C-alpha cells in the first residue's frame, strides 16, 4: 500500500544478519602512537615480528643487488657522457693515504744494478718484489722494513710472478708458487704465508720459501708475463718467439711426461715440446690475463690483436675461440671523430678482466696508451638495434658458459681537460695546480670493480708520473633518470639506442713520486670462508659495502717507493660536508638530494652512529695529503642526526586495507628506509651465510670469521645505542588530525619497532655464536642430538635470529653448553649468569632454571618457617616462569598440584596461565578460538594446549572454594579467614590475567556454575568482549546490557537491548521484545549528553528507538485483537497470529497483512498515525466506516450517539492533533452532519463538547466550526443547517468563556482571544434567525461575560 508513498518503513532493514554483536564500541579519539620505547637487550621475542623485519632486510638486500644497471646497457646508452672532475680536494674520488720509500738497503742495490732491476707487486701476500741481477727481494710494504730474499741461483732474474699451486703436487704448507724467470730457465719456489704478530697495527705475515727442485730450461727463449689460474695452471709467453706457453708440472715423472716442462700452445706437433724448432713470429704476445670465474684466457700481441681461449669447465683445457684484430678501425667505427683514436701511437697498454660481479655481458676492457677504454664481450652486437645477441639476462649467473665469440662492443673516451687538484707537489716536476693535463701515454694501468687507474708518463725525464683515476659516479648512475637515446647515427653502427642510464664517472689526476713499475688493488680480506646466499650487489656499487668493509685502495710501485691511493666513498665525502655544515649547510643538503633520501639517510645514520669503517683515515705515518678523513667527531654526529631528521620526509599511505592496517600500501619515510638499509648493509656479510662449515679433519668451524662477527656486532651495538639515546628519531612533532596520516605513522612506527627488535636479537645472536666459538664450537655441536647437528650445519644467521628452527637449534646448543660446563665442574649459577650477560633473551638456559626451581619447591615442603617457605615458593615460581616455554604439561600439572597443596595461589594460578601464553607464542591457538574454533583446523592443537592449562587453573579455584566451603558455617577461625583470603586471592589472580582466551573460558565456567551475579560484577578489559562474542547466546546477551547499566554505559545498554529486541536469532515473544525496546528507550534517555561525545547520534538513536517501539506496540495491539479470535493454532489465521507474536514486522506488513485483511479500522488509523502517512482518501474512508459501523450496530439514536461519542473520544484522545489519523475538519463535519440529521434527539452543542472531551482545544474547535459556518458546504448551505452551526458556536463560546473565567483556569488570560470572540459573537448575532431566542441569549451572556472580564 505504501509503494508510492514517502512514509518510513521502520523495520525495512531488519534481517537475519543483524545481532547485538553488530554494535560497535565507541571510537577512541585518534592519536599518534608514541615513539618506540628505548631498546632493551632482553626484549621478548616475537618470531612473527622478527620474520617480518627480516623480510624487510632481505628486500633491501635485493634492492641493492638490482641498483646498478647492466654495464653493457650503460655503455650502449651514451658513450659521450662527460666525466665529472673537480680541483677541490674534497671532491676528488681518490686521495693518497700514505707513501713509503724503498728501504735504504734496497736502494743501494737498486742504484748499483739499475739496468738489471725489475719490480712488481704481489698483493696476495702484501709484498713488493724487486730483482737486482740474480737476487730476488720480497719487501713487506705494510711493515716497511721486513725483507725476504732468494739468491740461490746465478742467472739474471727478469720476471717474477706469484701463482696458486696445483692441488696434490706439493706439501700442504705450500700456499703459493713463485715463478722466477731468467733468460735461460724457469724456476718454481714454494711459498707459505702465515700471520704473525707485528709491532704496528697491521697484521704481519711471515714468509717461508720451499725448494721444489722444479726448474726447466727455456732453450734461450726468455719467458715473461706469467699468470696462473685458480686450478694451478701456469701460462706465459716467450719473448723471443712471442708464443703462448704453459708450464706443465706434476709431482713425479711419467712414462710420457716430465716432472716439469714448457708446452708451446702457439704451435702444434713437436714444436709444442721443442721450442728451438719454432720460428720467431713478428706479431708477438705482450700480455696475458686470466679470467678464473669464466675459465677464460686472453692474450694481447704487439700488433694489438687480442685472442680468447676457453679453459674448459674444469679449467684443464685450452680451446681457441677467436682472435680479433683491426681494433683501431673498429673503435673508430664505434666512436668516429675521437681524437685519442687518431693519434699515431695507438697501442693497447693493458688488458683487464671485467669481474662477474660487475657485468654478465661485458668481459674484458683494454686500455690504450692514449687512455681510451675498449670494452669487449663474448656476444656479438645486435646489428638491428640495441643489445647483444645471446647475452645473459637477469636470471642466475652461469659464468662458465663456453664463450661463442669475442667482439668489441663499445669505446669509452678518456677524460678531457683534466686539471691537477690541490695537492702537495713539491719536487714532483708537475705543472701548477689548475693546469690542463692531456692523456698521451699510459704506461701502466689497473682496473677492478669499475675503478680504473692509469699511470701517465711525465712530460720530462726528470718528472714524475701522475695517476689517472676514474671511478663510477654512483649518484648519477643509480638515482638519475634514464638518459634520452642519442640521435640516429650519433655514434657508430648502434643507431638509435633505447633510453638507459649512462655510465657516469668521476675522473681526477694524482701525482706520485718516480716512474711507475706496477699498480694493483690492495688485498681485500674476505669476511667469511664462503659467501652468503643473499643476492650480491654489483661490485661497482660501493654504497652497499661502505659500512661493512674498509675503503678500497690501490698500491702504486715506483722506483721511489710505494704510494697508497684510497678510494673516497660517498660517506667519506658526506663526512667532509658535515664537518663544514655549520659554516655552509647547502652542500650537504645538495648531497642528500643527489643520492636520494634513503641512501643519504643510511649514510647519515652511519656517521651519526660512528660506524667503525669511517675511522680509516689519512693520519698514519707517511701521510702525504694535507687534509684528514679521520673518524667521526661529536659535531659531525650531531649534524648528521639533524640532517637525518630534517631530510627524512614522512610516511605516505597509498591505499588502506580495512581488514588489516599492516597490509596497507605505504611509502615509508626516508628515515625508516634509511634505518632498514643501513641495518641490512651492516649484516649483509653474514645474514644469509651459514653459521658453520666443515673444516679440516671434518671439524666444524665458524663460516664467518670471528673478526668479522665482532666488527659487525660493534657497529650494530653502536646503532642500537644511538637509537636508544634518540627515542624520538622516527616520530613526528606535528599534530596530525587526518586519520590517514595517523595510520601511515602507525605503520611506520610499528615497522621501526620490528626492526629495532630484530637489531637487538641480531646482536645477541652474534654473541651466542662467539660464545660457541669460545667453548669449542665443534665439540658443543657434537654433544647435541642428530637432528640438531644436521640443522646446525645448514643454519644461517637469518634463520638463527628469526625462525623457530633457529630457536630450536639454539635451545639444543644451550643444553649442550650447560652439560659441557657442568662436566668441567663449573656451577650452574656461573653458566646461567654468563648466558644471561652475553645473550639473555636469545638463550635463556631453561634447564638450569628448572633445576633451581625444583630445588626451591623441595625446600619449601621441608621447612617449617612460613617466611622461608614463602620465599622459596616465590623463588621457585620466578625460575619456573622463566623456563615456562619449555615445560612439559605433565611436569606443569605436577608443579601446580604442589603449589595447590602448599596453598601458594600465585604459582598455582599464574604459572599455568603463563605456560598457556608461552606454548602458543604466535597466538595461533588464540586465532583459532577467535575464529570460532573451525573444524579441521591445524591450530586446534595449540588451542587445546591452552585449554589444558586453563583447566588446571579452574581446578585450583574449585579446590580452594571447596576448602573454604568445608568450614563449619558461622564459626569464626583463623583457618577460615586464611581460606577465605586464599580463595579471594586465587580469584583475583585469575581475573587479573591478560589472557583473553582464559577469561572467556573462566566466564563460561562461572555461568555453568550459575554465578551470573559474580560475573557481571567483574571489571576486566575482556568481560564486554566475552558477553558480545559470537556465536550469540541469549544468556550472555541479557547479561551484557546489565553489565553496561552497572558500569554507567547507558547508551551501550540501550544499543544492546535494541539489537537484542530486533535479533531474529532468539525465539522471543512480542511482549519480551517490547520490554527490551522499553529498556532501550529508558536507557537511552538516561545517557548523559557528554558520554562518548555522541550526543547527536544518541538523540537520533533515541528517536529511532521510540519509533520502533511504537511499531512494536501497534503489532501488540493487533496481536491482542486477533489472538482471542484465532489463537496460535495450525490454521492460516493462527499461523498469522503466531508470526505476530514471534517476529517484528514492518509497518507496511502490519497494514497489508493484518489491519486491511481483518478490517481493523482503529488499527488502520493507528498505523497511519505511527507511520505519519498522509492519505486523505484512506483516512476519510476509515472514518466513514467507523460512523457507519456505529449506526449499523446500534438500533436507537441514543445508542448510536453513545457509540460515536465513545469512538471519537477514544481516538481523539489518542491521535489528536494527528491529521493522518484524526483529521479534525472531516471528523467535525461528520459529527455535525450526524447531529443535524438527528437534531430532534441530538442536543445542541453535542459536537463541540464531544470534541472537547476528545482533547481538542477550544481554539481548534472554534476554527473548524466557524469554517463550516462560513463555507456553505452542503448540507450547511441551507438556513436550518447554518442556524444549527450557530447554536453549536454559541455553546462553544459560552463554555470557552466559562472555562477561561473560572478560578484555576487552564487557559492563561493572555491567551484568551477576547476581541476575536467579541467580534465573532456580534457577527453571529447579526445573522442569527429571529426564532433562535435560546441561541441569542447564550451569545449575549457570553458577550457580557467577555466584556465584564476583559
UniProtKB/TrEMBL annotation:
A Gene Ontology molecular function term of the record: structural constituent of nuclear pore
Gene3D superfamilies in the record: 1.20.58.1780, Nucleoporin, helical C-terminal domain, Nucleoporin, helical domain, central subdomain, Nucleoporin, helical domain, N-terminal subdomain
Subcellular location: Nucleus
Keywords, sorted A to Z: Nucleus, Transport
GO biological process: protein import into nucleus; protein localization to nuclear inner membrane; RNA export from nucleus; transcription-dependent tethering of RNA polymerase II gene DNA at nuclear periphery
Domain Nucleoporin Nup133/Nup155-like N-terminal, first and last residues per copy: 93-562
Entry-linked InterPro entries: Nucleoporin_Nup133/Nup155_C, Nucleoporin_Nup133/Nup155_N, Nucleoporin_Nup155, Nucleoporin_Nup155_C_1, Nucleoporin_Nup155_C_2, Nucleoporin_Nup155_C_3
SUPFAM superfamilies referenced in this protein's UniProt entry, alphabetically: Nucleoporin domain
Family assignment from sequence similarity: Belongs to the non-repetitive/WGA-negative nucleoporin family.
Matches recorded under PANTHER family: NUCLEAR PORE COMPLEX PROTEIN NUP155
Name of this chain's protein: Nucleoporin-domain-containing protein
Amino acid at each position: 500500500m505504501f509503494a508510492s508513498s514517502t512514509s518510513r518503513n521502520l523495520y525495512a532493514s531488519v534481517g537475519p544478519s543483524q545481532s547485538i554483536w553488530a554494535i560497535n564500541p565507541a571510537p577512541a579519539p585518534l592519536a599518534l602512537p608514541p615513539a618506540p620505547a628505548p631498546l632493551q637487550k632482553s626484549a621478548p621475542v616475537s618470531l612473527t615480528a622478527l620474520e617480518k623485519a627480516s623480510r624487510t632486510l632481505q628486500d633491501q638486500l635485493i634492492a641493492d643487488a638490482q641498483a646498478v644497471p647492466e654495464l653493457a646497457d650503460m655503455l650502449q646508452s651514451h658513450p659521450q657522457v662527460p666525466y665529472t672532475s673537480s680541483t677541490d680536494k674534497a671532491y676528488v674520488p681518490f686521495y693518497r693515504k700514505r707513501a713509503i720509500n724503498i728501504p735504504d738497503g734496497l736502494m743501494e742495490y737498486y742504484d748499483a744494478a739499475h739496468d738489471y732491476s725489475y719490480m712488481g707487486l704481489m698483493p696476495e701476500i702484501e709484498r713488493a718484489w724487486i730483482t737486482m741481477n740474480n737476487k730476488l727481494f720480497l719487501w713487506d710494504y705494510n711493515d716497511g722494513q721486513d725483507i725476504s730474499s732468494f739468491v740461490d741461483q746465478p742467472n739474471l732474474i727478469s720476471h717474477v710472478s706469484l701463482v696458486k699451486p696445483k692441488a696434490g703436487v706439493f706439501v700442504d704448507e705450500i700456499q703459493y708458487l713463485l715463478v722466477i724467470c731468467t733468460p735461460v730457465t724457469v724456476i718454481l719456489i714454494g711459498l707459505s704465508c702465515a700471520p704473525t704478530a707485528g709491532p704496528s697495527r697491521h697484521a704481519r705475515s711471515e714468509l717461508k720459501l720451499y725448494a721444489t727442485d722444479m726448474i726447466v730450461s727455456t732453450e734461450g727463449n726468455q719467458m715473461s708475463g706469467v699468470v696462473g689460474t685458480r686450478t694451478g695452471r701456469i701460462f706465459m709467453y716467450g719473448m723471443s718467439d712471442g708464443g703462448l706457453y704453459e708450464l706443465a708440472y706434476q709431482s713425479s715423472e711419467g712414462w710420457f711426461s716430465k716432472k716439469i716442462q714448457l708446452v708451446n700452445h702457439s704451435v702444434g706437433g713437436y714444436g709444442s715440446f721443442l721450442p728451438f724448432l719454432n720460428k720467431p713470429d713478428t706479431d708477438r704476445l705482450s700480455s696475458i690475463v686470466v679470467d678464473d670465474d669464466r675459465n677464460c684466457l686472453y692474450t694481447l700481441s704487439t700488433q694489438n690483436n687480442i685472442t680468447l681461449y676457453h679453459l674448459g669447465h674444469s679449467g684443464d683445457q685450452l680451446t681457441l675461440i677467436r682472435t680479433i684484430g683491426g681494433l683501431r678501425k673498429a673503435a673508430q667505427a664505434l666512436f668516429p671523430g675521437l681524437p685519442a683514436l687518431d693519434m699515431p701511437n695507438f697501442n693497447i697498454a693493458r688488458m683487464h678482466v671485467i669481474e662477474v660481479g660487475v657485468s654478465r655481458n661485458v668481459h674484458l676492457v683494454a686500455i690504450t696508451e692514449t687512455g681510451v677504454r675498449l670494452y669487449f664481450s663474448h656476444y656479438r652486437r645486435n646489428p638491428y638495434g640495441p643489445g647483444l645477441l645471446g647475452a645473459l639476462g637477469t636470471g642466475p649467473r652461469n659464468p662458465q658458459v663456453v664463450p661463442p665469440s669475442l667482439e668489441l662492443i663499445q669505446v669509452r673516451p678518456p677524460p678531457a681537460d683534466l686539471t691537477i687538484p690541490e695537492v702537495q707537489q713539491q719536487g714532483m716536476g708537475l705543472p701548477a695546480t689548475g693546469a690542463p693535463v692531456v692523456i698521451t701515454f699510459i704506461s701502466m694501468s689497473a682496473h677492478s670493480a669499475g675503478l680504473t687507474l692509469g699511470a701517465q708518463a711525465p712530460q720530462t725525464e726528470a718528472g714524475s708520473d701522475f695517476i689517472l683515476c676514474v671511478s663510477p659516479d654512483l649518484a648519477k648512475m643509480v638515482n638519475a633518470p634514464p638518459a634520452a637515446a642519442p640521435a640516429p647515427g650519433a655514434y657508430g653502427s648502434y643507431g638509435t639506442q633505447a633510453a638507459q642510464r649512462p655510465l657516469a664517472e668521476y675522473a681526477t689526476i694524482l701525482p706520485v713520486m718516480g716512474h711507475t713499475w706496477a699498480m694493483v688493488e690492495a688485498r681485500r680480506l674476505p669476511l667469511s670462508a664462503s659467501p652468503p646466499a643473499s643476492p650480491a650487489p654489483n661490485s661497482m656499487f660501493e654504497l652497499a659495502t661502505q659500512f661493512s668493509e674498509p675503503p678500497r685502495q690501490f698500491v702504486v710501485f715506483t722506483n721511489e717507493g710505494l704510494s697508497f691511493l684510497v678510494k673516497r666513498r660517498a660517506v667519506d665525502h658526506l663526512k667532509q660536508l658535515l664537518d663544514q655544515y655549520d659554516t655552509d649547510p647547502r652542500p650537504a643538503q645538495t648531497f642528500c638530494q643527489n643520492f636520494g633520501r634513503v641512501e643519504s639517510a643510511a649514510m647519515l645514520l652511519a656517521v651519526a652512529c660512528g660506524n667503525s669503517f669511517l675511522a680509516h683515515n689519512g693520519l698514519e705515518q707517511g701521510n702525504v695529503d694535507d687534509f684528514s678523513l679521520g673518524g667521526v667527531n661529536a659535531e659531525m654526529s650531531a649534524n648528521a642526526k639533524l640532517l637525518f631528521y630534517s631530510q627524512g620526509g614522512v610516511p605516505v599511505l597509498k591505499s588502506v586495507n580495512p581488514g588489516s592496517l599492516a597490509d596497507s600500501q605505504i611509502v615509508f619515510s626516508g628515515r625508516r628506509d634509511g634505518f632498514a638499509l643501513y641495518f641490512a648493509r651492516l649484516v649483509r656479510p653474514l645474514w644469509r651465510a651459514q653459521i658453520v662449515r666443515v673444516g679440516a679433519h671434518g671439524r666444524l668451524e665458524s663460516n664467518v670469521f670471528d673478526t668479522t662477527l665482532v666488527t659487525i656486532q660493534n657497529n650494530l651495538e653502536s646503532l642500537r645505542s644511538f637509537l636508544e639515546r634518540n627515542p624520538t628519531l622516527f616520530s613526528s612533532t606535528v599534530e596530525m588530525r587526518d586519520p590517514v596520516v595517523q595510520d601511515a605513522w602507525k605503520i611506520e612506527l610499528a615497522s621501526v619497532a620490528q626492526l629495532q627488535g630484530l637489531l637487538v636479537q641480531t646482536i645477541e645472536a652474534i654473541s651466542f655464536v662467539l660464545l660457541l666459538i669460545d667453548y669449542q664450537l665443534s665439540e658443543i655441536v657434537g654433544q647435541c642430538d642428530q637432528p640438531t647437528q644436521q640443522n646446525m650445519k645448514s643454519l644461517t644467521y637469518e634463520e638463527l635470529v628469526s625462525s623457530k628452527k633457529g630457536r630450536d637449534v639454539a635451545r639444543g646448543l644451550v643444553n649442550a653448553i650447560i652439560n659441557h660446563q657442568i662436566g668441567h665442574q663449573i656451577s650452574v649459577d656461573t653458566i646461567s649468569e654468563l648466558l644471561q650477560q652475553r645473550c639473555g633473551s636469545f638463550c635463556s638456559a631453561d634447564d638450569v632454571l628448572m633445576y633451581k626451581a625444583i630445588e626451591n619447591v623441595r625446600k619449601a615442603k621441608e621447612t617449617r618457617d612460613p617466611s622461608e617457605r614463602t620465599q622459596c615458593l616465590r623463588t621457585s615460581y620466578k625460575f619456573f616462569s622463566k623456563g615456562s616455554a619449555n615445560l612439559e604439561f605433565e611436569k606443569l600439572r605436577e608443579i601446580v598440584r604442589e603449589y595447590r597443596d602448599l596453598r601458594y595461589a600465585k604459582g598455582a594460578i599464574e604459572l599455568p596461565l603463563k605456560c598457556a601464553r608461552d606454548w602458543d607464542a604466535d597466538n595461533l591457538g588464540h586465532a583459532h578460538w577467535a575464529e570460532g574454533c573451525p573444524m579441521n583446523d591445524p591450530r586446534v592443537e595449540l588451542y587445546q594446549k591452552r585449554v589444558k592449562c586453563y583447566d588446571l587453573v579452574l581446578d585450583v579455584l574449585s579446590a580452594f572454594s571447596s576448602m573454604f566451603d568445608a568450614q563449619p558455617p558461622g564459626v569464626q577461625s583463623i583457618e577460615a579467614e586464611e581460606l577465605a583470603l586464599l580463595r579471594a586471592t586465587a580469584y583475583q589472580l585469575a581475573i587479573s590475567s591478560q589472557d583473553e582466551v582464559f577469561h572467556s573460558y573462566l566466564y563460561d565456567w562461572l555461568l555453568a556454575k550459575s554465578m551470573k551475579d559474580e560475573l557481571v560484577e567483574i571489571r576486566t578489559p575482556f568481560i564486554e568482549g566475552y558477553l558480545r562474542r559470537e556465536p550469540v547466546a541469549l544468556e550472555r546477551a541479557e547479561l551484557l546490557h546489565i553489565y553496561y547499566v552497572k558500569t554507567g554505559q547507558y547508551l551501550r545498554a540501550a544499543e544492546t537491548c535494541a539489537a537484542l529486541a530486533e535479533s531474529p536469532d532468539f525465539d522471543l515473544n512480542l511482549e519480551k521484545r517490547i520490554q527490551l525496546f522499553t529498556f532501550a528507550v529508558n536507557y537511552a534517555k538516561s545517557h548523559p549528553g557528554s558520554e562518548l561525545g555522541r550526543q547527536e547520534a544518541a538523540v537520533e538513536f533515541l528517536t529511532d528507538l521510540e519509533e520502533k517501539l511504537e511499531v512494536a506496540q501497534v503489532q501488540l495491539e493487533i496481536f491482542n485483537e486477533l489472538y482471542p479470535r484465532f489463537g496460535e493454532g495450525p490454521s492460516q489465521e493462527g499461523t498469522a497470529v503466531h508470526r505476530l507474536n514471534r517476529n517484528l514486522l514492518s509497518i507496511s506488513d502490519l497494514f497489508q497483512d493484518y489491519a486491511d485483511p481483518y478490517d481493523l479500522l482503529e488499527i488502520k488509523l493507528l498505523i497511519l498515525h505511527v507511520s505519519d502517512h498522509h492519505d486523505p482518501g484512506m483516512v476519510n474512508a476509515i472514518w466513514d466506516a467507523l460512523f457507519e459501523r456505529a449506526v449499523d450496530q446500534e438500533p436507537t439514536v441514543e445508542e448510536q450517539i453513545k457509540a460515536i461519542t465513545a469512538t471519537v473520544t477514544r481516538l481523539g484522545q489518542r491521535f489528536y492533533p494527528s491529521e493522518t489519523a484524526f483529521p479534525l475538519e472531516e471528523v467535525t463535519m461528520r459529527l455535525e452532519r450526524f447531529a443535524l440529521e438527528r437534531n430532534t434527539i441530538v442536543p445542541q452543542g453535542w459536537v463541540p463538547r464531544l470534541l472537547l472531551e476528545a482533547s481538542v482545544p477550544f481554539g481548534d474547535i472554534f476554527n473548524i466550526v466557524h469554517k463550516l459556518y462560513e463555507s456553505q458546504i452542503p448540507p450547511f448551505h441551507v438556513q436550518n443547517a447554518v442556524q444549527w452551526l450557530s447554536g453549536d458556536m454559541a455553546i462553544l463560546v459560552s463554555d470557552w468563556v466559562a472555562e477561561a473565567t473560572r478560578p484555576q483556569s487552564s487557559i492563561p488570560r493572555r491567551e484568551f482571544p477576547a476581541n476575536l470572540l467579541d467580534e465573532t459573537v456580534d457577527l453571529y448575532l447579526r445573522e442569527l434567525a429571529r426564532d433562535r431566542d435560546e441561541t441569542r441569549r447564550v451569545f449575549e451572556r457570553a458577550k457580557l461575560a467577555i466584556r465584564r472580564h476583559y
